[in-house]
Amino acid sequence: MARKSLTTSLRNLRVTAVPFLVLLSLHAVIGSGHDYHDALRKSILFFEGQRSGKLPPDQRVKWRRDSALHDGSTVGRDLTGGYYDAGDNIKFGFPMAFTTTLLSWSIIDFGRNMGPELKNAVKAVKWATDYLLKVTAVPDVVYVQVGDAYSDHNCWERPEDMDTLRSAYKIDGSHPGSDVAGETAAALAAASIVFRSRDPAYSRLLLNRAARVFDFADRHRGAYSGSLRSAVCPFYCDVNGYQDELLWGAVWLHKASRRRRYREYVVKNEVILHAGDTINEFGWDNKHAGINVLISKEVLMGRAEYFESFKQNADDFICSILPGISHPQVQYSPGGLIFKAGGSNMQHVTSLSFLLLAYSSYLSHANKVVPCGETTASPALLKQLAKRQVTSILSCSPLTRE
To answer: Taking every annotated instance into account, which residue ranges of this chain make up the domain Glycoside hydrolase family (predicted)?
Structure first.
């Protein structure tokens, strides 16, 4: 397989492995003839294979060795650690932060279903957050990438042997990147919930840093692909804009801190930051559906009527992807697999399926359903739709055939 096609496939896998991981963790809920335990283990193990830096003694992927031990030396910072992207030796901060946010959300909502793999999932989060703390150590600066994508993509080599450029790229007050900074704040805030009872001191550190990074993202607004176009485009160029990441970061800070300022920020900026736009999109570049589903839990629990419009957006999202009445942007294969135009379709399948399961759980606890015209979307229906996607992903089943 050519380097480009393999890299694209692996990039898709790494960015979407988290929601897929959660789908696997729900074997007890959705049931199947597949070995979900083994698939879950391998999904988390994949993260260990992507580790950069000095590897820990309990590293399970034994063929991987220490690598990129001097990252950041060109700028006088320690930027070692984190995860490589796909089949590359680049560390792209934007998708890495999104992956961290989703893995944290997975643990928060479904960790009880992960069994013995929960501890490894938590370690995967910490491997990412330790790195995110390094890249945000200087106030009003975020290092968003280590490595030159062009030289790396022209040289196929394992990270232990790489001799390509390890350039460090940053955003700051003069070169804004509200998208990547907002996502980084979201990742740190979500992870602070994961460690709240496991390591309270570390949790407080994550939350305080999340607040500082979010303030920077909000004060210095702009897209990082505008500031660093030659480095990040066309690889993780922000097409959707930075507004959704600001709202996404504020929602996670609200959830993690319960501070009034973040609740008021979300309410005040709902329209300004376009919470109701592209409601059936969710991925590293577009957080709209995730924003609406995440915050709707509070409405369904009867605790936040001021977020009611977000719940309406979440209901509209559900209706927009139901088979038979789905939005023109969402189609289904003859076998029932979600299809959205563009590349990396499994990114859409796994991310949207994760939201289906999360919303199904919220609806079930509130004893609610979603009215979609003549159709009613029950929690069971949403679970069944997600199950259908998982079955298609795990095997070449009749679901993907004509």
So the answer is: 36-398
